[in-house]
């Protein structure tokens, strides 16, 4: 007999990698009053609703047709807002699960009138899998993803072969994947995984160490600056879809 607890569970979506392990743990962070106001005031313009059964129509949500860049895990959104402003001709689809971070970016978008950002407060992996078709993205940014230092947590790292393959398939030919990290073992894993993906090619010439010079559009964060002064490294990786 069917266990009633499972009776209404939808059948697995053929072809979709059923993900068990999340790349984040939802932190209980306080949404400050300014962020709360930003949700109320600017949410209707900038927030998008996740719907697993609905494909995103970028022209409709941005109100124009422009290259589409997805950002995964924007944190408090400071770099995201700066990048969107130095690249006004691109549209930025930004995903973050941490509510205070979403509030912070909403505040920046509303106060600085940044028209080329839209935000999903949702797991980016699900947005990618369910709302975006293959070959729909011109670029993907993943800056300082959680390094999950402990070996038993490595399975939570976002950058792993199967996910990178899905990212690559969602890029248009010529589209790029830009990653950055300040954790050397993760940088090495990123380089290994991206180099092993047949759909991707490294933009950094062979014969070098494989890491890219920091592209000008990515601002140095305060945290990164402090680390650099202490002699800590930061590694950028820029690959393109063949
Ligand atoms: C270490 S923080 C870095 C934030 C920001 N990119 C920066 O450079 O400051 C990583 C962020 O990724 C978010 N994150 C992790 N996995 C995610 C996912 N699957 N979808 C959306 N956000 C995710 C986390 O909530 C966290 O805020």
From TrEMBL:
Reaction catalysis annotation: guanosine(46) in tRNA + S-adenosyl-L-methionine = N(7)-methylguanosine(46) in tRNA + S-adenosyl-L-homocysteine
Gene3D superfamilies (alphabetical): Vaccinia Virus protein VP39
One of the record's GO molecular function terms: tRNA (guanine(46)-N7)-methyltransferase activity
Presence of the UniProt keyword Zinc in the record: no
A family per Pfam: Methyltransf_4
Highest rank taxon of the organism: Bacteria
InterPro entries assigned to the protein according to its UniProt record, in alphabetical order: SAM-dependent_MTases_sf, tRNA_(Gua-N-7)_MeTrfase_Trmb, tRNA_methyltr_TrmB_bact
Binding residues annotated for S-adenosyl-L-methionine, in chain numbering: 71, 96, 123, 146
EC number: 2.1.1.33
UniProt keywords, alphabetically: Methyltransferase, S-adenosyl-L-methionine, Transferase, tRNA processing
Pathway(s) annotated for this protein in UniProt: tRNA modification; N(7)-methylguanine-tRNA biosynthesis
Family, per entry: Belongs to the class I-like SAM-binding methyltransferase superfamily. TrmB family.
HAMAP family, per the entry: tRNA_methyltr_TrmB
Function text: Catalyzes the formation of N(7)-methylguanine at position 46 (m7G46) in tRNA.
NCBIfam families listed in its UniProt record: tRNA (guanosine(46)-N7)-methyltransferase TrmB
Protein name, as recorded: tRNA (guanine-N(7)-)-methyltransferase
Organism: Hydrogenophaga bisanensis
């Amino acid at each position: 007999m069917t266990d009633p607890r499972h009776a209404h569970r939808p059948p697995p979506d053929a072809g979709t990698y059923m993900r068990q392990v999340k790349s984040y743990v939802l932190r209980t962070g306080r949404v400050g009053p300014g962020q709360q106001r930003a949700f109320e005031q600017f949410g209707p313009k900038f927030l998008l609703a996740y719907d697993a059964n609905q494909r995103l129509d970028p022209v409709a949500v941005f109100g124009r047709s422009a290259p589409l860049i997805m950002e995964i895990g924007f944190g408090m959104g400071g770099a995201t807002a700066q990048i969107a402003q130095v690249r006004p001709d691109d549209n930025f689809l930004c995903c973050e699960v941490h509510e205070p971070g979403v509030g912070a970016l909403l505040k920046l978008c509303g106060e600085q009138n940044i028209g080329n950002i839209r935000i999903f407060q949702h797991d980016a992996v699900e947005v990618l899998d369910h709302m975006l078709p293959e070959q729909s993205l011109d670029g993907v940014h993943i800056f300082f993803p959680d390094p999950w230092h402990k070996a038993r947590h490595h399975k939570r790292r976002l950058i792993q072969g199967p996910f990178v393959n899905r990212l690559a398939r969602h890029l248009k030919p010529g589209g790029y994947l830009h990653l950055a990290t300040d954790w050397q073992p993760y940088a090495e894993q990123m380089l290994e995984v991206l180099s092993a993906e047949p759909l991707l090619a490294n933009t950094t010439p062979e014969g070098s160490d494989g890491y890219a010079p920091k592209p000008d559009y990515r601002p140095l964060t305060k945290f990164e600056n402090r680390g650099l002064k202490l002699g800590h490294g930061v590694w950028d990786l820029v690959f393109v879809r063949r």
